[in-house]
């Protein structure tokens, strides 16, 4: 039997740490062995922890609903944009199709795709959503009955479930999911402030962690006498996804959320299969959509998913005035905390060697997953 020692590699650059940016070096194998300040001959580039995308349907022509090979394709595409941990996300579809898609994700959960990211598990987005707040989800919403919840939990791969708390059986489903360690992400909901607050309390009482699915989108807005679900989520200890492609959320609305919840806000792409492809017609959950200048719309004009990548979201955040190290937390440290992944999300000794190397304009130069540079 031969035992191979993993080779030790070093990267030099401006290290993006949680509280500052430091010129230095990182030594690593598949995990980080040392993070050292170094002021000598530091190349003009940034080194960031690998990005974590909790909500992504597709990219480069592939969609999560199409099975394992398609997930490989979309995951590799997003890895080239800095995503080193990914949660392939289903879309509201007939129940048998949802279960089939989750079965495919279960096959590769916990693995790292060659030249791609680590697959942490699935985000089940739909069918447990409000038929009145579908957004771009096809009209196959279902109630989270105990039988359906049991079927999902038996597959063992769902890490996040999007759930509208006003649905029949929602209270029981919240308890079952939260007790099983699944993050309950409130969203695609018509619930008001009080109902959302009650759901947050139920998740907490079951020992769970609350999330919000694309905060502000597919939920009622904030008004003077109707604070709505967004206020309940922002004022609790919930984590919240944000699609910051500047189409779904205005830069000022992003800054508001970032100030209120700097440690609980997380960027997601919600990207669809057209991400990375030229403008033109595409398909989302079997529906015709059109991609034009970074926005995806249904024929009705309704926004439908995105063609965002996480590196672009980071550039948008910095352009909106958030310092780079604070913006970086939104795609690294915060989603890692949300998911309970203590082995990643920071440049720190002992963490996974997942890195994104970026030029001064924040374009991706290199991506490393568990100490291996991806092509
Ligand atoms: Zn989505």
Automatic annotation (TrEMBL):
**Which residues are Zn(2+)-binding?**
125, 188, 214
Looking up Pfam families in the UniProt record yields: Amidohydro_1
Binding locations of substrate: 136, 217-218, 225, 248, 303-305
Superkingdom classification of source = Bacteria
**Which cofactors are reported in the record for this sequence?**
a divalent metal cation
User: Single GO molecular-function term?
Assistant: metal ion binding
Active site positions, chain numbering: 270 (proton donor/acceptor)
Question: Is Metal-binding tagged as a keyword?
Answer: yes
Pinpoint the Amidohydrolase-related domain residues: 46-373
Q: Which UniProt keywords apply?
A: Carbohydrate metabolism, Hydrolase, Metal-binding
For this protein, the record's InterPro entries field holds:
Amidohydro-rel, GlcNAc_6-P_deAcase, Metal-dep_hydrolase_composite, Metal_Hydrolase
**What does the note under cofactor report?**
Binds 1 divalent metal cation per subunit.
GO BP field: N-acetylglucosamine catabolic process
The UniProt record lists the keyword S-adenosyl-L-methionine: no
Q: Which family is this protein grouped under?
A: Belongs to the metallo-dependent hydrolases superfamily. NagA family.
Protein name in the entry? N-acetylglucosamine-6-phosphate deacetylase
Q: Which organism is it from?
A: Acetobacter syzygii
């Amino acid at each position: 039997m031969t035992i191979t020692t993993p080779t030790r590699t070093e990267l030099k650059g401006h290290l993006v740490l949680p509280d500052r940016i430091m010129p230095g070096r990182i030594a690593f194998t598949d995990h980080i062995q040392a993070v050292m300040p170094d002021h000598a001959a530091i190349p003009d580039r940034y080194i960031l922890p690998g990005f974590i995308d909790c909500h992504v349907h597709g990219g480069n022509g592939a969609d999560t609903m199409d099975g394992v090979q398609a997930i490989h394709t979309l995951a590799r595409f997003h890895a080239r944009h800095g995503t080193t941990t990914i949660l392939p996300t289903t879309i509201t579809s007939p129940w048998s199709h949802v279960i089939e898609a989750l079965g495919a994700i279960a096959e590769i959960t916990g693995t790292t795709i060659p030249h791609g990211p680590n697959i942490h598990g699935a985000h089940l987005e739909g069918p447990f959503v409000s038929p009145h707040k579908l957004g771009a989800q096809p009209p196959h919403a279902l109630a989270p009955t105990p039988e359906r919840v049991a079927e999902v939990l038996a597959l063992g791969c769902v890490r996040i479930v999007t759930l509208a708390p006003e649905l029949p059986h929602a209270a029981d489903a919240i308890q079952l999911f939260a007790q099983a360690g699944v993050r309950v992400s409130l969203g695609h909901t018509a619930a008001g402030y009080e109902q959302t607050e009650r759901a947050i309390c139920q998740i907490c009482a079951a020992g769970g962690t609350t999330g919000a699915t694309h905060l502000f989108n597919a939920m009622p807005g904030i008004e003077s006498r109707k604070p709505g679900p967004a206020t309940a989520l922002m004022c609790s200890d919930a984590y919240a996804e944000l699609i910051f492609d500047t189409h779904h959320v205005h830069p000022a609305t992003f800054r508001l959320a970032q100030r209120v919840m700097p440690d609980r806000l997380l960027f997601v792409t919600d990207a669809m299969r057209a991400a990375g492809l030229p403008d033109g017609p595409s398909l989302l959950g079997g529906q015709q959509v059109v991609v034009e200048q970074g926005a995806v719309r249904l024929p009705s004009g309704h926004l439908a998913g995105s063609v965002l990548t996480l590196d672009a979201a980071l550039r948008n955040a910095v352009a909106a005035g958030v310092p780079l190290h604070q913006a970086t937390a939104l795609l690294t440290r915060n989603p890692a905390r949300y998911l309970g992944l203590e082995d990643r999300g920071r440049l720190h000794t002992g963490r996974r060697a997942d890195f994104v190397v970026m030029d001064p304009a924040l374009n991706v130069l290199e991506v490393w997953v568990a100490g291996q540079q991806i092509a």
